[in-house]
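Colleagues,

For the teaching module next term, I've prepared a clean inverse folding example: a structure given as tokens, and then the sequence designed for it. I'd like students to try predicting residues themselves before seeing the answer, so please don't circulate the second half yet.
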């Protein structure tokens, strides 16, 4: 005798809502150098440190002396999306950007977009080790790079 288990759509939806999304369980610290394009013809490279603890986290940009908090927005496949709110260095960082984080082995592919600018980096978990051997990179515009 076979027994089929039937479940109503509202019951299934409520059960799935109780399961944590990938972005809500992604935790760790990653860092590296990001490249920004925009706004306009501006290009720059700067250091970035991502710290996630489930649905919340931080972004710090040591070479720009700015950073802020992250709040989980959604997950799409293996990519988690967070909204950034700059809480220090407002004059050096753009507030309100959307950040996507996708695990790639022990590292994460990180992207930021907002206000006509985009930035991307492969951030690695070797943050403390990197800081021992590398000095912060200072952001330069195209005109400064020569």
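(Answer key — instructors only)
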């Amino acid at each position: 005798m076979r027994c089929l288990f039937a479940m109503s759509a509202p019951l299934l939806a409520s059960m799935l809502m109780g399961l944590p999304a990938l972005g809500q369980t992604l935790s760790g610290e990653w860092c590296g150098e990001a490249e920004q394009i925009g706004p306009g013809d501006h290009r720059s490279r700067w250091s970035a440190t991502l710290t996630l603890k489930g649905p919340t986290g931080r972004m710090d940009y040591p070479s720009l002396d700015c950073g802020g908090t992250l709040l989980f927005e959604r997950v799409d496949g293996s990519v988690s999306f967070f909204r950034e709110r700059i809480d220090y260095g407002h004059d050096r960082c753009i507030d309100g950007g959307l950040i996507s984080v996708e695990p790639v082995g022990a590292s994460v592919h990180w992207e930021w977009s907002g206000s006509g600018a985009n930035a991307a980096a492969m951030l690695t978990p070797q943050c403390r080790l990197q800081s021992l051997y590398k000095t912060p990179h200072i952001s330069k515009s195209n005109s400064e790079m020569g």
